[in-house]
Amino acid sequence: MRILVVEDEPKVASFIRRALEEESYAVDVCGDGLGGLDWAQTVNYDLIILDLMLPGLPGVEVLKRARAADVKTPVLILTARSEVDQRVKGLDAGADDYLTKPFAIEELLARARALLRRAGGAPTGVLQVEDLILNPVTREVTRNGQRLDMTTKEYALLEYLMRNAGRVLTRSMITEHVWDLDFDTFTNVIDVYISYLRNKIDKGRDRSLIQTVRGSGYMMRTDA
Amino acid sequence: MKNASIRVRLTLWYGLALALILSLFAVSLYLVMSRALREQVDASLEEAAAVAIRTLGEHRFGPFLIFEDLSQDFPEIALLDKFFQIFGPAGQVTIQSANIQSREIPLSQTAFRAALEGGVTFESVQFEKGVPIRLLSFPVRQGDQLVNILRVGTSLQSTERMLHRLLIGLYIASPVALLVSLAGGWFLAGRALRPVHVLTQTAQRIAAGDLTQRIQTPHSNDEIGQLASTFNDMIGRLEVSFRQIRQFSADASHELRTPLTITKGETELALRRPRQADDYRMVLESNLEEIDRMSRIVDELLFLSRADLGEIKLKMLPVQLDDLVREVQQQATVLGQDRHVTTVLNALEPVVVLGDDLRLRELLLNLVDNAVKYSCDGQTVTLSLQVVDQRVKLTVQDMGIGISPDEQTRIFDRFYRTDEARAHASKGSGLGLSICKWIVEVHKGTLSVHSQPKQGSVFTVFLPLSHASRPDLPQV
Ligand SMILES: Nc1ncnc2c1ncn2[C@@H]1O[C@H](COP(=O)(O)OP(=O)(O)O)[C@@H](O)[C@H]1O
Ligand SMILES: [Mg+2]
After folding, report:
1. Nearest CA of chain A to the CA of B260: how many Å?
2. What CATH code is carried by the domain that includes residue B403?
3. Structure pTM?
């Protein structure tokens, strides 16, 4: 899952980024409205967290233009508590949810999860492929009832694969959704992480769930 | 009456006055009318008496007169609305006209006595069940001798009826007139008070919080018009200060919200799971920074609101401004050390101004702090202090980020910070220049800025020169 944070106050942007990264999301931060709009249009983000008080282009305007440019990514706006008006404008301009500053980190993460879930179309939140189960709230992964420990990157990769079970995911798609802008695409990091995952999930079992699709990428297998 | 509306009261007072006037008018009309009518009756009686005397004279007076003869000769005597009686010298009736019929109308004692002395008597009498009658008794004398008493009488019925009608007319007309004019008064009072009504309604809407409301001022410059425009002026000023207060508190809460968001967010994040000691240290350091920022904002806000309330007392004493500038220059050098921003003195004339030493230092520090803060690494800030046209001119010049022309007026507003400034230096409350402006104003000076984006800015302070620094004048 890749998230764009548009926030001009560096310290606020920084702790939001760290919190999201701890939850194994890939995070990009942009400090001004125009840049944020630009990124939102070029990268296919899974979620955008948008501060409404921005230098250059105000947040509401960024949102309007992004929606006009057919960006369908869910947007969580950050506002000040007193600015009811701003909040309404933001929601009208196409925001999916809002959070007032100062906010609790856990609430930010919960809302981000909810928005990602809604976009992923799995309302219960728990992802399941055969006997492999992933719970995004507790971040617990089990296969056949047996707990599997994951690093944050492994977890992010697995969540992305499971959300798109049955679809072939190219390396560039995986890069875009699981890694952030600092990621160097020429390395074989993805293949390395896939092999880590396979070690944990498929090794020593009858059925392998992660399949290599020759020449294009990887796919999480489904029964169908 | 106290609780009744002005409209009701006006109408009632008006009605009361009118009722008084009307009844006075009615009473005097009645009196004048009845008197005129009575006089008319008396005059006609006198006239009839004169005719009768003349006729009697031709027939010679005597105790035995025959009325039929008289009336045949002088038919005018037998007028229908009058009757005649002729009494003998002893007061007994000798003859009387036919239209008196069988009624007994004896001569009254007063009339008889008056007749003996040659006097004429008018009397009004009313018999039981009969009509009121007016009588004239007229003595007929030959020499000193009373020969006859002629009495002419007439019924007062028609006069009374006329007066009665008048009375009824007045009884009906007065209340009707009163009612009509009460209604008119009610209407007029309502019309006169309508602007007041409009005023009240507007005031109520304003009281409900809508300060954009204004009263439609009538074109006239009458009392109500003046009241309305006074009222509008007042609301206008209220609206401005309300807007300022609202803007100010919105800005204040926004500026405080950012450090709050940071401290809360960073602390919560740190507490989510166990971390290295270094991580905690970083969070604490960052939080301390934010706490400093908040306390500075709170201090500055407190200062400004006390300044607004006029609670800040200044000690106005002669201040050696060049010493102050030198001190501040040294502090600025420390401020700019990290970023290699140097602060130099250009011109420095010895100058004394009358002012508050602490506040003037604060003014200088704020300006120099801005200049250093909004300079780019390695640039120079220049200070100068001169006397120009008998005024003290102090300039703080930098070559930093500058300010666009349309923002140059707004930077003196509370909390206003340009986007460039926010991007360049995250520290700052946007209150410094508001404080500077206040300090300069209480010292009866001026503060202005000349700036070009990316070229730098010059802040210029003019202050009045104290006598002490003018050698041609004796020191105070
Ligand atoms: N020397 C300067 N160069 C450029 N901009 C300046 C300078 N001084 C003040 N400003 C502008 O005026 C604003 C208000 O200044 P001030 O009230 O001192 O607030 P602060 O220093 O906290 O930002 C600043 O945010 C900045 O935009
Ligand atoms: Mg300042």
Report:
1. 6
2. 3.30.565.10
3. 0.59
Is the domain of B443 the same as that of B387? yes
Domain end, chosen from B246, B279, B308, is at B308
User: Which two structure tokens, joined as six digits, stand for A157?
Assistant: 């990769």
> Read out DSSP for B178-189?
HHHHHHHHHHHH
Average pLDDT for residues B170-186, to the nearest whole number?
90
Select from B256, B370, B403, B437 the residue to mutate for testing ligand 1; criterion: most ligand atoms less than 8 Å from CB.
B370
User: How many residue pairs bridge chain A and chain B with CB atoms within 8 Å of each other?
Assistant: 63
Query: What strand order describes the sheet that includes B121-126?
Result: B93-96, B82-87, B145-155, B132-142, B121-126
Token reading at B404: 């666009």
| Cβ count near B132 (within 10 Å) | 13
B395's enclosing H/E stretch is strand B391-397
- Residues B263 and B363 both lie in one domain: no
Q: Output the six-digit token pair for B257.
A: 């919200």
Q: Nearest Cα to A72, choosing from A54, A52, A95, A90?
A: A95
Q: Which of B308, B334, B361 is the last residue of a domain?
A: B308
Together in a domain, B258 and B325: no
**Cβ within 8 Å of residue A88, ≥6 positions away:** none
Those residues with Cβ within 8 angstroms of residue B16's Cβ, 6 or more apart along the chain or in another chain: none
Q: How far is C-alpha B373 from the geometric centre of its chain's CA atoms?
A: 55
A211 min Cα distance to partner chain B (Å): 35
Q: B387 and B427 share a domain?
A: yes
* Interchain contact, A12 vs B264, CB within 8 Å: no
Instruction: Find the DSSP H helices in B60-89.
Output: 67-73
**Quick check: B373 pLDDT over 80?**
yes
List the structure tokens of B441.
């104003």
Mean pLDDT for B171-198 is 87
> Domain containing B26: what range?
6-161
Q: Name the token pair of B430.
A: 């946007």
DSSP string across A15-29:
HHHHHHHHTT-EEEE
Summarize pLDDT for A104-125 with one digit per residue, the tens.
999 999 999 989 887 765 556 7
CATH number of the domain where residue B20 is located: 3.30.450.20
Q: Is B321 found in the same domain as B301?
A: no
More confident residue, B115 or A18: A18
Predicted-complex ipTM score: 0.71
Contact list, A105 vs chain B (CB under 8 Å):
265, 268-269, 272
Q: Decide if A84 touches B, using CB distance below 8 A.
A: no
Sign for the CA dihedral angle at A176, A178, A182, A184 comes to negative
| Count of CB atoms situated within 10 Å of the CB of B433 | 21
Whether residue A19 lies within 8 A of chain B, CB to CB, comes out as yes
Residue A24 with chain B: CB contacts under 8 Å: none
B461, B467, B472, B476: CA torsion to nearest 10? -160
Total count of domains within chain B: 3
CATH number reported for the structural domain that contains residue B292 in this entry:
1.10.287.130
Contacts of B260 in chain A (CB under 8 A): 101-102
CA distance B286 to B299: 20
Quote the pLDDT of residue B476.
Answer: 42
The Cβ of residue B323 has, within 10 Å, a number of other Cβ atoms equal to: 14
**Contacting residues for B80 by C-beta, under 8 A, at least 6 apart:** B99
The CA radius of gyration of chain A, in Å to the nearest whole number, is 18
Q: Is there a single domain that holds both residue B112 and residue B239?
A: no
* B409: in domain: yes
* Domains contained in chain A, CATH given: 2-120 (3.40.50.2300), 127-220 (1.10.10.10)
Looking at the complex, does the CB of residue B389 fall below 8 Å from at least one CB of chain A?
no
Residue B352 located in a structural domain: yes
B302 and B390 together in one domain? no
